[in-house]
Write a structure and sequence with these properties.
Elements: H1 2-12, E1 15-16, E2 22-23, H2 26-32, H3 37-71, H4 81-97, H5 102-129, H6 134-146, H7 156-175, H8 183-186, H9 194-223, H10 232-244, H11 248-278, H12 286-304, H13 307-331, H14 333-349
Antiparallel strand pairs: 1-2
Amino acid sequence: ATIFAEAVLAQLFRVKNKDGTYRGGPAYYLEKGLGQRWMGVLFAISIIVAMPFVFNAVQCNSIVAGLRGAFFSNVKEGGNIELYLGIVIAGLTAVVIFGGLKRIAHVAEVVVPFMALFYILIALVVVIIHIQQLPAILVTIFKGAFGIKQVAGGILGHTVAQAFRYGMARGLFSNEAGMGSTPNAHATADVKHPARQGFVAMIGVFTDTIIICTATAALILISGQLGSGETGVELTQLSLKTALGSWGPAFIAIALTFFAWTSILGNYYYGESNLMYLFPQAQKGPLLFSYRIAVLGMIIFGAVSSVPLVWELADFFNGLMALLNLVGILLLSGVVVKVLNDYERQLQTQPDFEPLYKRTDM
């Protein structure tokens, strides 16, 4: 519901660039929809700090961890390999964001869906092979989430609070519904009706969290590696290696590299779009150049920094962005309902859809 509302509002209150493309997002609908520019400015500052800086550090950290676990496991942790990998990732990103070989990004956009599909198929194969374990795995997940095992120990409240806190944080990070980041992308889509983009956005959330994250959880629990001491991508790699063989870590590393790098490019765009909101005249010049250099610096920082530090920063800015965005969605929910009702009416009477932007009765 939140991602639907975000996408619809992003379509409604977007602005047109000189080249005919569009940009938009929470900063735009907080100002244009609610008339509260201060909220738009605060959100824009939050997302500029969060997405291209903190979140890109998270993504690079994941890429480096995956590559190190698959191809450089014999190299001592904390050495220069993390720095070298970070520099390579930053270099590839620089080629794209400075207007160079854009086809690199296009290749990644083509490859990523196939990688995701292949990953889901692999996880399904593992689940099918061990289908007799699935009921016990689901029971384990719910017991852990609701603290059933901890009732006797008198620590139920703390356990449930921790499960809720990390479950919400990681769930939000996986699909970003309600956080306000993806509307910046949904605003650019060319659709006949804003509600259509809302439905597309909902499919994204379902795929990210319900399908891919559940597949990963099942893979880890089936492998029996949850208590191995590994975390993050290394745990997923070890689980796939246990389930299917030695090629697992390499596949996870390559797939994750594509997933995370395209996220880095997307996060960069989110930041740039909101930089343009704050400083429309900064489409060229020293401010944009400095922003790009800072983004590349944070990518390298993420490669060599510790996972807990990066995640804590990410969770903090997640919350700040979500607070502002959810207030905006709530206050503009009536507009979203109008758009949905208009879509359903036109679906019955006028399937070709009359462009909403040309109408005055909304």
